[in-house]
Specification:
The complex is a heterodimer of chains A (112) and B (114). Chain A is mainly β. Chain A is built from no helices and eleven strands. In chain A, strands 2, 4, 5, 9, 10 and 11 form a six-stranded mixed β-sheet that branches. Chain A has a five-stranded antiparallel β-sheet with strand order 1-3-8-7-6, with no helix packed on it. With 114 residues, chain B is an all-beta fold. Chain B has no helices and eleven strands. In chain B, the strands form two sheets. In chain B, strands 2, 4, 5, 6, 9, 10 and 11 form a seven-stranded mixed β-sheet that branches. Chain B has a four-stranded antiparallel β-sheet with strand order 1-3-8-7, with no helix packed on it. Chain B is globular. Chain B starts with a strand and ends with a strand. Classes of the chains: A mainly beta (112), B mainly beta (114). Chains A and B meet through β5 and β10 of A and β5, β9 and β10 of B.
C-alpha cells in the first residue's frame, strides 16, 4: 500500500517566518503533486514534480522532489497570512496512474 | 486551468433521504471523474473512479449501493448518497481528468444529515 506521510500535521507561525513541510513515503512515485486547500473549497494544484532531485519555485514557495522519488518538501519563505491553508501532497496510485493517493495534510496558520 | 463545478455547494437533509450531487467539467471533456470525501481536519479519501459510459470503480470499504455514481456524459457525473445517515455528513469533492491525466477539483459539497 502506498502511503504518503506529511509532517508536521499542524503548524502555526508568525508572519515573516520560514517553514518547511515534508511528504515522505517508503514507495517510489512517478510524480508528486502539492495542493493548497482553503476551508469550504476544493484543493488547488500548486505544482507537480516529476524528476528525482527536481526543484521548482513558485514565488516564495520552493518544492523539491527527492532523488529517489520517495519524498518531497515544500518550503515557504517569509510566510504571509494569505498562505494559511491545508497543504496536501498527492501521488498516483501504482495500480492506476490516474487515481491519486493523498497525504494527511499539513494545516498551516500564519498569524499577522 | 480547467473549471469544475459542483452543485449544490451545501445541502442539509433528513436521515433516510437520498441526496444527489452533480459534478460538471465546464470547459473540457472529462474522460474520468473522481469522487472524494473529506472529514473535518482530515485529508481527501478517494471513494470511486468513474469513466463515462461505464460502471464506477469503488475503493475498498466504500459501499457501491450506498453511493451511486452515474457518469452519463463527458461533462457530468453524479453521486447519489442513498438513505443518508448522520455519519454520511461530510465534504464531498469531485475531480475531473482529461486525457492528460491532470485532475481538476471542484469546490466541494457540504452534506449535513440531520
Amino acid at each position: 500500500t502506498q502511503l504518503l506521510e506529511q509532517s508536521p500535521q499542524f503548524l502555526s507561525i508568525q508572519e515573516g517566518e520560514n517553514l518547511t513541510v515534508y511528504c515522505n513515503s517508503s514507495s517510489v512515485f512517478s510524480s508528486l503533486q502539492w495542493y493548497r486547500q482553503e476551508p469550504g473549497e476544493g484543493p488547488v494544484l500548486l505544482v507537480t514534480v516529476v524528476t528525482g532531485g527536481e526543484v521548482k519555485k513558485l514565488k516564495r514557495l520552493t518544492f523539491q522532489f527527492g532523488d529517489a522519488r520517495k519524498d518531497s518538501s515544500l518550503h515557504i519563505t517569509a510566510a504571509q497570512p494569505g498562505d494559511t491553508g491545508l497543504y496536501l501532497c498527492a501521488g498516483p496510485k501504482e495500480t492506476s496512474g490516474s487515481r491519486l493517493t493523498f497525504g494527511e495534510g499539513t494545516q498551516l496558520t500564519v498569524n499577522p | 486551468g480547467a473549471v469544475v463545478s459542483q452543485h449544490p455547494s451545501w445541502v442539509i437533509c433528513k436521515s433516510g433521504t437520498s441526496v444527489k450531487i452533480e459534478c460538471r467539467s465546464l470547459d473540457f471533456q472529462a474522460t474520468t471523474m473522481f469522487w472524494y470525501r473529506q472529514f473535518p481536519k482530515q485529508s481527501l479519501m478517494l471513494m470511486a473512479t468513474s469513466n463515462e459510459g461505464s460502471k464506477a470503480t469503488y475503493e475498498q470499504g466504500v459501499e457501491k449501493d450506498k453511493f451511486l455514481i452515474n457518469h452519463a456524459s463527458l461533462t457530468l457525473s453524479t453521486l447519489t448518497v442513498t438513505s443518508a445517515h448522520p455519519e454520511d455528513s461530510s465534504f464531498y469533492i469531485c475531480s475531473a481528468s482529461s486525457l492528460a491525466n491532470e485532475q481538476f477539483f471542484g469546490p466541494g459539497t457540504r452534506l449535513t444529515v440531520l
